[in-house]
Structures are given as C-alpha cells and as structure tokens.
C-alpha cells in the first residue's frame, strides 16, 4: 500500500468514527429537544429556538471533544498477574501454505503486516484474491459527495440572493422610512436596515449579514394597506433583532456535516417553525396589533408570494405553508414565562446537554492499598524453604507493564573531509572513554601547524627586538608587531584544533557497532563511521496508563524480568524520568528508570517486563496496587 493510500485509509477511518460518535452523542440532545417540544406544555418560541440551537451546537462540540472523561464505576476485580508468556508465531494455529497471518496494531492504528509462510510446491492453481475497499472508505466517500452537494446548493442560493438584491431599488418613501425607523427603535435596533422594492414575487425578505436590507415586492406594496405593511416590517425587523441570519448558519453547516442524520432534518424544520413563531410574537408585541389582524396578514402574504430562499441567505414573513397553520394556532396564546422559570429551564437544558455530549469512559475502580502485615519471626521460622515467599513475589507493586532496555547511543561521524589512515577498533569491541577509535591522514594539518609555529616564533622575535630598541621604533611599528604575535597565536590554535580533529575519540565507555568505513576510504564531513552504545548505565523505558499519573514518582524502585517468566530477573533500579504529558492516542505516559544488573542480560532494545514497587522513595507514600500490561 502506498503512503497516499495508507494516509487516506487512516483519514477515512478516523473521520468516520468521529462522525459516528458525534452523531450518537449530539443526536441524544436533538432527540431530547424534539421530545420536549412534543410535550403538552406550552413552550415559548424563543425557548424552542434555543433548544434547537443547543442541539446543533452539541453536534459540533462532540465532533471536537474527543478526550474521554474517566468514570471509576467498574467494580470488577483487576486480573491477577500471570506468568503466561506472550504469544509468538510458533503458538499460532497452523495455516496452509497460501494463507497469511495478519497482525494489526490496535493502539497505534498501523497498517496490517502480512507474515507469509514459505510456499511448498503444489499442483493446485493459486486462488484469485479480490481486495474489497473497507466500509469506512466507502462511507467517507459518500459523506464527501453529500457534503459537496450541500455546499453547491448553498453557493447557488447565495448567488441567487446577490442577484435578487441587485434587482431591488431603494424605497424613497419618507413615510415608509419613518415607519421602519419607529419599529426599529421599539425592537432595540440602532440602525434600521435599507428598504428595497423589487418586481420579484419572492418576499418580503430580510437579506444580508453585513448590510441588512428588507426586500418588498411591488405587488405587496401596491395591494397592502399601512397596517399590513407595518406588521410586515415588524416581522422582518424581529428577524434582524434576533440575528436569525447569523444563527441559520448552524443548520446549514450541520446539513453539510451531518446530512445523513434524520434528526438533523427534523431539527431544521422545527427550528424554522420556532424561529418564525418567535418573530411573530415579537412583531405583535412591538405593534400592539391583535393576533387576528396579524394572522390575516400572514394568509394574505402567503397567497401572493412564492417559496422563499434557503434560511441561510434570507428569512421572510411568509415562511413555509406547512408551518403556517402551526403559527396561526400559536398566536391564540403566547406563553409568558417569568425570568426565574427561564433561568431554571436554561440550567436544566445546559446540564443535560453537558452530560449527554461529554465523552464518558467507564474505568475500573482503584482498589485501596492493602495493609502490609509483617509476620513474626516464630511464624517465619515455622515455614519450610519451599513455602517461604521470595522477595520477587512478595514485594507489593503499583503497576506492571512491558518495556524495553535503552542506552545512550551515538553515531560517530567524520569530523573533517579526509582519508582514513587507521581504524583502531574491531566490530563489537568494548572501548573506554577517550580511547582513539579512528585516525585520519593528518600530514597536511601537521605541516600547517609547523608553518604556524614558525610564523609565531618570527613574530615573537621581531617584537622582542622592537621592545629592546623602543626609543628607535615608532609606536605604530610596535603595535603592528604585537598584533602580528596575536595573529600568530590565533593561527596556531586553529592549526592545533585542525590536527586534533583528525582523531576520533570515544565520548564514553561502551561497545562499538559495525564499522561503516575502512582504512584508505575518503569521507566527507558528517559521513557515518560507526555506532557506539554505552554499556555502563542501562535504562528501561515503559508506558503506564494515565490514571497512574501522580501515583508514580521519581526515585520509586522498579524490577525487570524476562517477558516469559518471573524466574529470570534481569535487574532493578529507580525511576528518574516521568513524561510531563499523556499520549492522547494510547492514553499512556512514558517512564524511564536507571538499572543495575547483569550486563549480558540488559542489552539495549531487549523487551522486558517491568514492575513498579508500591513504596515511594521520595515521600514514603504507598501507591495503590494495580496491574496493566499492553
């Protein structure tokens, strides 16, 4: 699989599961909002609008909120440590010559690796292998196509809105302008929008986010009386006061990301109905008009207008004919809630939403630290050697994990451009700190050093003569002689440094790797020569789960064994490093410890089992015993 295909596979799987989680958690909030609006209780239209706004916001919050919150509710006991060795290829079931064992990493989400067994001769024809694309990639492609279709629809609607606005002519009627200013002041709008008249049957409409304008068809202006025009303008100004054009971006973008979700489509229709009812209530309150007159105006406008544009680019008084009957019924009684009731309702909705969208994760409860009871000497004396517990099995542990041995490793490179004269180590040889490893040809450097020494002696001799005959030498000549000596000293230091660079010394005691060069070979500066691995201070690196962060401390003791059994201890040591952050993918943090033990066993790169002792060397506390192994 190519890098591009692997990246696409990873992206599709990651994004599909993100969308699935957001659809599930955000869908709970949308279902709650829908259920609430279906109750016999009369909810104010503005409260219903906020319910749907919170529902759509929860979809996007859950899409971004991926860090889980642990709930220690699982009371199942932690499995005791076992000495069962990890599975190997030899322990796998037998497979035929043409089959492959596929190993996939779950934690790091790596691509599958096929380990094929040798193919013995066979007369049977090879079977044809058909590769089917994963379901996640198919869903990702379908989601992408659906999102592009929604984006194109919104773009076309936006272009149609701009064209519609350009077709409108500013209304110069002073009486109409004064009426719009009066209603804007009543609704708390500082700057009334521009009034436009158009021959299009679409309208009335509120258009534009940055420069809002109300578009009125010529047909309505000529057939409606002043009272109906007043109610029309009040409704459109209510949309402006509530910033409905800005809020309508939520269902528009939600349709692009979650257009496959049935609750998203239901929420969009319910949102529009609640939005129109809220504007109806605000318009009636601003104009002090009877609901019956306002209802007749809606019926008259609906009979003379065509369906409006998408709510993202324009909102109007007529709205959908499907919601018109519902709006007329709601005008009979607008529920009036007190501020206290609205506050309590808002707190309940917020609490339910946070509990629904939070990525909870149930984890095992941490058992309390066991009491350590020291047996009396008489009791210990009565035990036989066979039954007496060993130190390796009785020491309490805070956690166990799989790790690997590490050590300081340095790649020795050519310090200069030159030819290797002699290599003074063998592959795998142990060397001491400061030992000469590689000698480059240094004849040129020695010659330049000798030349620098001669120049310095000449400059120093000339300076002594000038100082002895100070009365016969000008001050400028004396200063030049001193400068020549200083220049000679600097050049000598440079030549000495160049000569020292021809020798590669061991920076620490360790064991050499395989040499990548040979005597007589010409290297450029930075070319690799060999690798040196430190053998005097082995370390172990391992991972622990995030719930143990804060319970493991520097100075805490660790013990290491072979992965297959506790009967073969490799060494022990103390923790010196705890990572300051947690890996968000695996939910673990890195720990390192210095080790002492059998140098032949503590080979860098070797896997081992690590046990962290419960007693803390720094503060004397005891961490709760637990076990975790990847």
- What's the oligomerization state? single chain
Low-pLDDT runs of 5+ residues are 81-131, 369-394, 616-630
Structure summary, number of beta strands: 23
CATH superfamily of the domain at 412-532: RNA polymerase II/Efflux pump adaptor protein, barrel-sandwich hybrid domain
Task: List the total number of helices.
Answer: 16
- Rg result: 41 Å
Instruction: Note the beta-strand portion.
Output: 15-25%
Strand order of the largest sheet: 10-19-22-21-20-23
Which CATH class of the domain at 412-532? Mainly Beta
Helix residue percentage: 40-55%
Main sheet properties: 6 strands, antiparallel, barrel
CATH fold-level name of the domain at 412-532: OB fold (Dihydrolipoamide Acetyltransferase, E2P)
Structural class: alpha+beta
Query: What is the overall pLDDT average?
Result: 78
What spatial form do the alpha-carbon principal axes imply? Answer: elongated
């Amino acid at each position: 699989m190519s890098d591009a295909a692997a990246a696409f596979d990873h992206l599709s799987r990651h994004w599909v599961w993100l969308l699935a989680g957001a659809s599930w958690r955000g869908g709970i909030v949308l279902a709650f909002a829908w259920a609430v609006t279906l109750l016999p209780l009369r909810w104010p239209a503005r409260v219903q609008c906020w319910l749907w706004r919170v529902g759509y916001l929860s979809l996007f919050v859950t899409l971004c909120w991926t860090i889980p919150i642990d709930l220690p509710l699982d009371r199942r006991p932690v499995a005791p440590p076992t000495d069962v060795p990890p599975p190997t290829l030899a322990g796998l079931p037998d497979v035929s010559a043409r089959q492959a064992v596929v190993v996939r990493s779950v934690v790091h989400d790596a691509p599958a690796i096929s380990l094929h067994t040798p193919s013995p001769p066979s007369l049977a024809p090879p079977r044809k292998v058909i590769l089917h694309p994963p379901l996640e990639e198919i869903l990702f492609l379908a989601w992408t196509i659906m999102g592009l279709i929604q984006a194109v629809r919104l773009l076309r609607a936006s272009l149609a809105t701009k064209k519609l606005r350009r077709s409108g002519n500013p209304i110069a009627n002073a009486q109409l302008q004064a009426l719009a200013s009066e209603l804007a002041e009543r609704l708390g709008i500082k700057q009334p929008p521009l009034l436009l008249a158009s021959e299009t049957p679409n309208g009335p409409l509120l258009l534009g986010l940055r420069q809002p304008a109300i578009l009125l068809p010529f047909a309505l202006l000529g057939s409606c009386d002043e009272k109906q025009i007043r109610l029309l303008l009040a409704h459109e100004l209510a949309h402006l006061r509530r910033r409905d054009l800005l809020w309508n971006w939520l269902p528009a973008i939600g349709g692009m990301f979650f257009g496959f979700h049935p609750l998203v489509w239901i929420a969009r229709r319910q949102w529009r109905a609640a939005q129109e009812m809220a504007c109806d209530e605000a318009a009636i309150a601003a104009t002090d008009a009877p609901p019956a007159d306002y209802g007749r105006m809606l019926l008259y406008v609906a009979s003379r207008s065509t369906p409006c544009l998408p709510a993202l680019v324009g909102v109007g008084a007529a709205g959908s004919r499907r919601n018109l009957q519902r709006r007329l019924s709601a005008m009979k009684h607008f529920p009036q809630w007190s501020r206290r009731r609205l506050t309590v309702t808002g707190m309940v909705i917020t609490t339910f939403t946070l509990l629904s969208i939070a990525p909870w994760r149930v984890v095992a409860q941490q058992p309390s630290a066991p009491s350590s009871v020291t047996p009396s000497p008489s009791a210990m004396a009565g035990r036989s050697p066979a039954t007496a517990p060993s130190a390796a099995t009785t020491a309490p542990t805070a956690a166990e994990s799989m790790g690997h041995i590490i050590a300081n490793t340095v790649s020795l490179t050519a310090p200069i451009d030159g030819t290797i004269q002699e290599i003074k180590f063998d592959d795998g040889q142990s060397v001491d700190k400061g030992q000469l490893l590689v000698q480059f040809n240094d004849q040129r450097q020695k010659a330049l050093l000798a030349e620098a020494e001669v120049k310095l002696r000449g400059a120093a001799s000339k300076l002594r003569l000038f100082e002895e005959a100070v009365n016969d030498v000008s001050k400028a000549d004396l200063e030049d002689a001193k400068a020549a000596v200083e220049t000679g000293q600097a050049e000598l230091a440079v030549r000495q440094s160049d000569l020292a660079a021809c020798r590669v010394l061991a920076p620490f005691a360790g064991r050499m790797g395989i040499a990548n060069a040979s005597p007589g070979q010409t290297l450029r500066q930075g070319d690799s020569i060999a690798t040196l691995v430190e053998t005097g201070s082995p370390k172990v690196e391992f991972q622990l789960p995030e719930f143990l962060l804060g319970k493991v401390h520097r100075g805490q003791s660790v013990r290491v064994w072979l992965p297959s059994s506790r009967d073969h201890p490799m060494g022990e040591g103390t923790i010196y490093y705890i990572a300051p952050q947690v890996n968000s993918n695996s939910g673990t943090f890195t720990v390192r410890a210095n080790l002492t033990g059998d140098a032949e066993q503590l080979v860098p790169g070797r896997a081992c089992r690590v046990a962290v002792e419960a007693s803390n060397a720094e503060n004397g506390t005891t961490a709760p015993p637990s076990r975790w192994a990847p």
